[in-house]
Amino acid sequence: MPPAGEALGAETVIDISHESLMRVWQRLDIWADEEARSAQTYRRLADAAALHAAGMAGLWRNPELQLAIDWRDNNHPNETWASRYHAGFAAAMEFLEASRTLRQQEEDQEESARQAEIRRQQELAEAAVKLATEQRRRARAAVVGVIVALLLAAFGGYEALTAIKKTAVAHRAEVRAVSALSRQFTERGDATTGMLAALPMMPNATLPGARPHSAPAAMALLDGWSHHREIATMIGHTSEILNASFSPDGQSVVTASRDNTAGVWDAQSGAVLAVLSGHTDAVVSASFSANGRRVVTASWDKMAGIWDLSGAP
Predict the structure, then answer these.
(1) CA-CA distance, 2 to 15, in Å (whole number)?
(2) 88 HSE (CA, 13 A, CB side)
(3) 182 inside domain
(4) Which of 79, 98, 131, 291 has the fewest CB atoms within 10 Å of its CB?
(5) Do 180 and 123 share a structural domain?
(6) What's the domain range around 58?
């Protein structure tokens, strides 16, 4: 109001019905939905802060923590806005920052432990290489002894034969020592270094004077390979993976990601079997049904989805 055709002046009052606003102003619908989601996130955060202050809850961890940090960084809430929904804005922000600090400390500790483990593995590998080098040096010295023995064979075949036998014994001792070291690495859970230690004892037809086949070295290499833990690597999501779980038969894996999708993968090869897309926000959880034929997903978009895998991909 007023109706079309009536002249409008500086003092004219314009009346727009509430129904018209809700039916035509689509951006208002988007704003209202975003406000509701932002308020829901803040209320959850403020409630968690109050419980933590009362000693009834711990600090947040992922995925809740990362989602709350993203909300804070993207929406920049303030106390005036927050007072509409919950009075504990300052405590909520302190709780969120304390949670972030704890996560950073844990990540720093994990990184320090990882670097220490890398250094330990490097030291073990260097020790294995050093041992193999020393064994090769001794083997070369033994070969020189054989040559000398052969030169002396013209004067005494018995002495030459004895030197050859000693060389063979030294070689077998070298193989046994390196194979034992390889198995020690494998038994400690470091199958990769175990295999690296056994490789120098394996035949190499491309080199002159190649070593003969060695059953102990071959068995040590096979043992290291059989204990190698990593089976497959699954690559395809474009953002953090928040959840992963096996199918009931162990043949597939389902992952939930902040890229708004869930993925179904072959557990042996790591190949993608299906991409479950349709959510409009981060997928925080995904799991198989009891028969493994369907997947249920939960998303921050306030929706849960059930997906039939019979027609995948």
Answers:
(1) 7
(2) 17
(3) yes
(4) 291
(5) yes
(6) 18-101
pLDDT tens track, the chain, 313 positions: 788 888 888 888 888 776 666 677 778 778 888 889 999 999 999 999 999 999 998 999 888 889 999 999 999 999 999 998 888 899 999 999 999 999 999 889 988 888 888 888 778 777 777 776 776 677 667 656 655 555 555 555 555 455 555 555 555 666 666 667 666 666 666 666 666 666 666 665 455 555 555 666 666 656 655 655 556 678 889 999 999 999 999 899 999 999 999 999 998 888 899 999 999 999 999 999 999 999 999 999 999 999 998 865 5
Tokens of 231: 């089976």
Same domain? For 196 and 171 the reply is yes
Rounded to the nearest angstrom, the gap between the alpha carbon of residue 101 and the centroid of all alpha carbons in its chain is 22
- Last residue of some domain: 72, 101, 130? 101
207: Cα separation from own chain's centroid: 40
Tell whether 12 is covered by a domain: no
Q: Which of 47, 69, 101 is the last residue of a domain?
A: 101
125 shares its domain with 219: yes
In this structure, is residue 57 part of a structural domain?
yes
